Structures are given as structure tokens and as C-alpha cells.
Amino acid sequence: MKELPLDQVRTLLAVVDEGTFDAAAAALHVTPSAVSQRVKALEQRTGRVLLQRTKPVRLTESGEVVVRFARQLARLERDARAELGLAAEQGPARVPIAVNADSLATWFLPALTRVPQDPPICFELYREDESHTTALLREGQVMAAVTSSPEPVAGCTVRQLGSARYLAAATPEFAARHVTGDLAADLSAAPTVVFDLRDDLQDAFVRSLTGGRSGAGRIRHMVPASDGFRDAVVAGLGWGLVPEPQAVPLLRAGRLVELAPGRPLDVPLYWQQWKLDSPALSTVAEVVAAAAAEALLPHHP
Question: Which of 1, 34, 100, 246 is within CB 3.0–4.6 Å of 130 for a Cys-Cys bond?
């Protein structure tokens, strides 16, 4: 295979960003037929199907590779123009990052306030579960991600940040009603608060108590926001694993009790980013790593 024609690569990216061939044609000021021909030519050149022709379109695994390359190419071009003094009209640098809700609610946003703004940097944050943020990296939607995965996405580097600690907690009234004897058996049956359908933390904690025999109970209240999750536990809807920075003040005030003292759940977090010589991305990465070293626990494999 020879080189990838840049007009075809950029056209594929436009189709993905706009969602349809017609919308991409409007954005590129060409006909839908021209867009279709460019994508088809790129697929012939690579010998791979790159798009599923749905509405909106969906990338195949091969398409993800090409789109990631397109976004990296656009970033390199932007940085080169900036160094040549040709990018003033393009506005500030954009750094899209995938990050889990609990990090957003505790240490991550204060970290971003430390990023120097000369030249200015705009953050585009994508909230996703820490075990799924790498999917956005793989698809090329973000340049970096806070993730629980130590396995690098193709074309990315991995940096250890530390471990986020969670405490199993509930209101005193809930604990008195539902946690009365064997902790493992009680939590296997008690109502639980979960973040979303993919939230496995509560199940993982109960499995650690039962030796993998069972997870959390079937009565599950889904609250897809970090502060809302905490508030649901404080309201007595169920028990849940609350980030330590959020749990400690509530424990001290007596509004929550720790269900398993001395048995926290520690989730290792990593920073994955494109292997790209981007000044803006490098600046953000250094600031995030420094803030994580202060906010998170040292990670011990």
C-alpha cells in the first residue's frame, strides 16, 4: 500500500464528525458523490472497510486507525502553523480528554486550573467510566484519557497516576436495617446505588468479600453523576462505594458509616495519550501527573 491521500483521509474524518455523507459534503463544500467516491477510494487503497453505512455512520476497527491518524495529522499541522506564526486566526489549542466522573468531581478539574494559559488551551472533556475511556482514545475522539487500563492503546503511551480509593458506605439507618450479620451475605442482598449499567465497582467489592461467589444485590438504583451518586447514598437509597474525598467529611459528620473498615477498594488510574509531539498535550500531561501525585494514593501492584 502506498501513502494515504490526505484529501481522502480528511474526508473520512469529516464523515465521522458530521455523521452522514451529506453533512460531510456540506462541511467540505463538495458534492455527496465526491465524498462517497473519496471514502470508497480510501477503502480500496487500504483494502479495508472503514465505515458502516448507518445513520450516523460507524467506524470499523480499521476506520478507527485511519481516523486517529487524521486527528493526529490535524494536530501536528496546527502545532506547526503555531510555531510558524500562522495560526493566530485558528484560535486556542484544543485538547480533548476522556475522564471518569469521580475524577472530575474530586481532583481533575482543580488540576486543569494549573495549566498555563499562555498560549491559551481549551479543554474538551468527555465523561466516561474509567474502564471505558480508552475506547474514545482508540476511536480518535480524544487525545488523552484517565483510565484504569495499563495496556496502551495502539499509538499511545501510558503513565501511572496513582490509585483512587473508595469506601463502602451507607447511612447509619440503612446499615442498621440491612447490614446486621455476615457482611458479604448482607451486601449481596441489600439495595445498591450504581453509577450506570457498566458500573462494576460494587460488584467487584462484594466479590472480594465472597471469594467471587456473588456480586452486589439485584435491587440497584442507577444515578449517573458522581455528586448524585453520593447524594443517593446519603439519602439512604442504598449502599455504595463513595470516593474517599467525598466520603470522609460525611463519615466525620455521622451522616454515613463505613461498612467495611480497613477494607477500601483502590482503583489504579493511568494517563494514556497519543504519541505526539504536541506542546499543548505535553503541558497538560505534566500538570495532570503532578496533581494526581498529590491527590491519589501511590499505586502498589
Answer: 100
